[in-house]
Automatic annotation (TrEMBL):
This is PTS fructose transporter subunit IIC. It comes from Pontibacillus marinus BH030004 = DSM 16465. Keywords: Cell membrane, Membrane, Phosphoprotein, Phosphotransferase system, Sugar transport, Transferase, Transmembrane, Transmembrane helix, Transport. Residues 145-170 are annotated as: Disordered. InterPro entries: Bacterial_PTS_Sugar_Transport, PTrfase/Anion_transptr, PTS_EIIA_type-2_dom, PTS_EIIB-like_sf, PTS_EIIB_2, PTS_EIIB_2/3, PTS_EIIC_2, PTS_IIA_fruc. Residues 300-649 form the PTS EIIC type-2 domain. Residues 5-149 form the PTS EIIA type-2 domain. It is found in: Cell inner membrane; Cytoplasm. One of its GO terms (biological process) is phosphoenolpyruvate-dependent sugar phosphotransferase system. The chain crosses the membrane at residues 311-331, 343-368, 402-420, 440-464, 476-496, 516-537, 584-610, 622-642.
Amino acid sequence: MKITDLLKKDTMILELDSDSKPEIIDELVAKLDEAGRLNDKEEFKQAIQAREDQSTTGIGEGVAIPHAKTAAVKEPAIAFARSQNGADYESLDGQPTHLFFMIAASEGANQEHLETLSSLSSLLMDASFREKLLEAESKDKIIELINDKESEGDEEEEAEEESTSEDHEEAYVVAVTACPTGIAHTYMAADKLKETAKEMGIKIKVETNGSSGVKNALTSEDIERATGVIVAADIEVETDRFKGKPTLTVPVAKGIHEPKNLIEKAANGDAPIYEGGGNAAGGEEGEDGSFVGGGEKKGFYKHLMNGVSNMLPFVVGGGILIALSFLWGINAANPDHPSYNQFAGWLSTIGGGKAFFLLVPVLAGFIAQSIAGRPGLAPGMVGGLIAIQETGGIEGAGNGSGFLGGLIAGFLAGYVVLLIQKGLTVLPDSLDGLKPVLFYPVFGLLITGIIMILINPPLVSIYVGLQDWLNGLGDLTIVLGLILGGMMSVDMGGPINKAAYTFGIAMIDAGNYAPIAAIMAGGMVPPIGLALATTFFKNKFTQQERETGKTAYVMGASFITEGAIPFAAADPARVITSSVIGSAIAGALVMLFGITLQAPHGGIFVILLVNSNIFGGLLAPLLYLVAIIAGSIVTAILVGLLKKDAKNT
């Protein structure tokens, strides 16, 4: 596929009317929409702006390449525009921008489309080509220039590959480039590094990690031969393979604008020796001019998000399967109940007995892996398993220390393995092969396991104490509804949430059906409220979060509070505060309306089973919905008011 299969005359503007960045974006988006390339003009514009908020796509040299990959694009396309006088696009070099290429990639764009879109950035590295585009008198001439340049580029690439494979000079640099969208900056950095290295007479091989996958992958022979490594990336890339090599870890923009400096350092081996420890992304310049980054320097948030993102499929898949099992009746999964249905039982077993059972171990395992690399995974998962199973014989412990214990286990395992890795550096190099297969797993499991066995009973005691405190409240009041509803949102499936839920179950056994109604309403509010927020306050969320919001509607309606965890993990203070207030209001309203419910779970599927001690059975379902919707709206509004605009896609 050629670039001109995506860039057509109906998406070209030979002279822009606009001269400021916001107006230019508006004009280019309007051109794509007018040509019928977009599904949702406003959503696409938000995706473009979110990418600009992360870092300007005005790359310098008079060029800007705003881009986005989103479901708002009907079909992949490129819009082109020129400004002969130049416009202020907040370019990285501070100079006016003359050429604008807006890339619109659809969410389901195939590999051929993505490779074509990506190749555009490579062509724009040629100054003479940019000059010809500025001088072109017609749209037909622009298409001709691009076709000619693209054919020329294919020939040069073939010649370069042959040269790289045959040449074995002493100075040899390898590099990896990657950016969040994998469409433009990834390839621009790669081409700039290759072009500069050619001018300097230094051989280089560059691996690109783009939307269409890894290209020109570095082999073990390449890395062994290299005098230095450059990692120019704004997303995580695998770096353990560079262990023992001088490695510069920098943002992808530095690969575009400071290629000579990077290549000189890498060619001379003037860089920190990479000691391993996982993946790396980005980096900052140190006081001595060297660059540092990646490895274990990623911070609490990234470790937590690695755990949450890997846990999410278990939450979504398991939660929806549990909810579907209630279609055959609230007790249809119980083999001892007259309404038992075998298929409903299978759904409940797969979703609740298996998928949900793995939530905490998976969370802990991938937090540990983020901290310590692959050796952290096994100790983290075992630590998470201990958190939910080892209770020290405490009565009423239920699922151990739950979500809270899993978080502690994940970070504990990760840093334990890091200490083990550092401690074993004193061993001779001949034993390096035994470290990942013997020393790390044995000592990691042993130390993490013993510590978790010792600390988990006190964590469980906190959980059980909460249940006892709730039992001591006695009278069912609006205040109790506030407390129970709010507790469901504090840790969204963790021990506080489970303490409230267990109290509700205990009250059902005692013949009191009001608390569980307040608890279920409070637990449904966070995911529904966050889903509403992603719908009505789109600028506050990334594209990925908006997609997660669609699933959160289903999970909230199914009483799967864990559906709000991804949002809470990304912005805990604002999201949890908003959710607790909304859930507390829902719980209080349920108590105010005198709502009762005999089903312990089910969400929207058991709405017709609710009753009211005050208003009777006919109005009860409607009033219950009013309470849930009111709490969800409050949460959504608070999130919209408190959260900052999203900074990346």
